[in-house]
Design goal:
Blueprint lengths: L1 H17 L5 E5 L3 E6 L3 E7 L2 E4 L5 E4 L1 H4 L9 E4 L2 E2 L2 E2 L2 H15 L9 E6 L5 H13 L4 E6 H8 L10 E6 L4 E7 L2 E8 L3 H16 L1 E2 L2 H11 L10 E8 L5 E7 H7 L1 H16 L3 H10 L1 E4 L8 H9 L3 E3 L6 H10 L3 H7 L8
Parallel strand pairs: 1-9, 9-10, 11-17, 17-18
Antiparallel strand pairs: 1-2, 2-3, 4-5, 4-6, 7-8, 11-12, 12-13, 14-15, 15-16
Length: 357
């Protein structure tokens, strides 16, 4: 009984402290990190890239500046992405990256350190959760709460997750695509696949290598995906010029490609995303599945912006599919809304209760 009273007192104290600190919500993505500051909204959106000196691991640049260096660094500097498939691949670099982003989002030095809500993939292990939590604490967070990405995305796009009805969300990020059916504030069924924006970029790189003997970098592949990528035939097909290195001659080369070719290149990752959507529906209880006939599926994340992907999933599942108004910020807005919730409701939504505020 005494332990319960102490725990409740601690939660009330932390909630009161939170009223006087700039608490944060963080979408720590494989490709992009976004930060929400309580009372201010989304204040930062930068690539999850860090440039370091090879010999000393000293940080040279983070975010936008570091991304500009991808593929263009001298021998003693390397630009890396320390998040892989939605989880930490380099503990120390992620800590440095988090420290930089938190300081940039909150330039004024406050007496009270911020509490932080971080969105994590639904399929990560306890060890990976601990790595995320430890990194944020070492980066100067007062308290760290983890929330599953699909749940954060559902909250961020305004789905009525507290109602006793089915809500399905698909969050397509850089490293993972998250699927969840949510009812009464909890996840009824969820799955995560390591097939998302990064795999689409790699598919484009491989296609151009095999078809045109042209080597391009990740930045160019991403640009191609954004400009002419599609998952469904377009009313008016697009084209663009692409520059790279000829693998045979070893010299710079320019070719012209079409959206039809890129759609062919993206076939495998797109099909994997569609099949996982159908699998999620197969595991959804009948009553909740019936709700989805009217409510449909909501898509969030940068990958949901791929032309025609919503139409492709709708055609394959037979359900209406809607892309969120601002899919890029859905997850971080969900973490922000979680910050503003009363402690009791917040505890129902976060990943394990032992990591409570």
């Amino acid at each position: 009984m005494l332990q319960k009273v102490i725990k409740t007192s601690k939660q009330i104290l932390n909630y009161a402290i939170g009223l006087f600190s700039n608490d944060m919500g963080i979408d720590l993505g494989t490709a992009t990190t976004l930060v929400y500051v309580k009372g201010e909204g989304v204040v930062l959106c930068e690539p999850s890239v860090v440039a370091i000196y090879k010999d000393t691991n000293q940080v040279v640049a983070v975010g936008d500046e570091a991304k500009k260096m991808l593929g263009r660094t001298p021998g003693n500097i390397v630009a890396i992405r320390p998040m892989k498939d939605g989880v930490i691949s380099d503990f120390e670099i992620v800590e440095a990256m988090l420290r930089y982003f938190m300081k940039k989002a909150q330039p004024r030095k406050l007496l009270i350190r911020p509490a932080v809500v971080i969105a994590v993939p639904s399929g990560i292990t306890e060890v990976e959760k601990r790595a995320v939590k430890d990194s944020a604490e070492r980066a100067n967070a007062r308290e760290v709460v983890l929330i599953e990405e699909p749940k954060a995305a559902a909250i961020g796009v305004g789905l009525p997750v507290e109602e006793p009805a089915g809500n399905m969300i698909i969050d397509i990020g850089g490293g993972t695509t998250e699927y969840a059916v949510i009812s009464l504030g909890g996840i009824v069924y969820a799955m995560s696949i390591k097939m998302a924006g990064d795999k689409m970029d790699m598919a484009i790189i491989e296609y151009l290598k095999k078809t045109y003997n042209l080597m391009i970098g990740e930045r160019t592949a991403e640009e191609i995906k954004i400009r002419i990528g599609s998952a469904y035939p377009l009313e008016e097909e697009l084209s663009m010029d692409v520059r790279g290195r000829d693998l045979i001659a070893g010299l710079p080369k320019t070719i012209s490609i079409t959206s039809v070719e890129i759609r062919e290149a993206l076939h495998d990752p797109v099909q994997a995303i569609v099949e996982a959507s159908k699998m999620t529906l197969e595991h959804t209880p009948p009553e909740l599945a019936a709700d989805l006939i009217d409510r449909g599926i909501v898509m969030a994340g940068g990958g949901s912006l791929l032309r025609g992907l919503d139409r492709r999933i709708a055609e394959e599942t037979g359900l209406p599919v809607h892309v969120a108004d601002d899919p890029l910020t859905a997850v971080v807005l969900g973490t922000g809304h979680t910050l503003n919730m009363p402690p009791k409701l917040r505890r129902r939504l976060i990943v394990p209760a032992k990591l409570d505020f």
